[in-house]
Design brief:
This protein is α/β, with parallel strands linked by helices. It has helices at about 25-45, 60-65, 80-95, 110-120, 155-165, 175-180, 185-195, 200-205, 210-215; strands at about 1-10, 50-55, 70-75, 100, 125-130, 135-145, 170-175. The protein has one domain (about 1-210): Spore Coat Polysaccharide Biosynthesis Protein SpsA, Chain A. It has a seven-stranded mixed sheet, sandwiched between helices. Strand 5 (about 125-130) and strand 6 form a beta hairpin. It is globular and about 50 Å long. The N and C termini lie far apart (about 40 Å).
């Protein structure tokens, strides 16, 4: 059974590095839009048999339930790796043989990107998609799901590769431009808003009220 895992911070705590560009309310709306785009891709991917969302945010949890995802209440936020561990445990209880973790700030991801990752899934091993800088990890597939713990944060890509090697399983670094494009900084948002896309995130950034003026572009 192939399960997708989407960890998501409470909206009030998400994307604090965008504070120089966005008000708290706008930052929460942009974070929710990115989450919506990723959740939709996971929920509509052919290769995914179940989606598990780990969050302490009732708004995000409600959205997940409406699209048929299984929600794990994180309670007090426990950090990304803690959330991944909690979600992985839930996925294993569902019968997962593979778990694909995707971060909630990669709004360009498409269902086909998810299907491609899983279509080439080894019988045992890991596949990791780097961040745009090539140092972080934006998605990680583990088969079996608990073969090594997640090491998200900072230069996580090399830590995930090393963890797989230590576990004695193969690990493949997979390049995917859409999955690699995470939105962390004001400059990331400006770049994203300058290239139209059929995403909730683009509509939130550009198509709301005075947003085009705020981002220095025209819708």
């Amino acid at each position: 059974m192939k399960v997708a895992l989407l960890p998501a911070k409470p909206l009030a705590l998400a994307k604090t590095r965008l504070a120089p560009l966005l008000t708290d309310a706008d930052r929460a709306r942009v974070a929710a839009a990115m989450y919506t785009d990723v959740l939709h891709a996971l929920a509509t991917a052919d290769a995914i048999e179940a989606v598990v969302v780990v969050t302490a945010d009732p708004t995000l949890a409600g959205h997940a339930r409406r699209v048929g995802a299984i929600v794990v209440d994180e309670g007090a936020p426990r950090g990304l790796n803690g959330a991944v561990m909690l979600g992985t445990d839930a996925a294993v209880r569902l019968g997962a043989t593979s778990v694909l973790v995707v971060l909630s700030d990669v709004p360009l991801v498409q269902p086909g990107d998810i299907d491609d990752l899983l279509r080439r899934n080894p019988l045992q091993g890991a596949r990791v998609v780097p961040s745009k800088e090539g140092t972080g990890t934006n998605a990680m597939l583990r088969t079996p799901p608990t073969v090594f713990p997640s090491r998200f944060g900072g230069r996580s890509l090399e830590r995930h590769v090393a963890a797989a090697e230590h576990a004695g399983i193969p690990c493949t670094v997979v390049r995917n431009a859409r999955l690699e494009l995470d939105l962390d900084t004001p400059e990331d948002l400006r770049m994203f808003a300058g290239a139209p896309s059929d995403t909730e995130t683009y509509r939130e950034l550009v198509c709301r009220g005075d947003a085009p003026l705020r981002f220095g572009i025209r819708a």
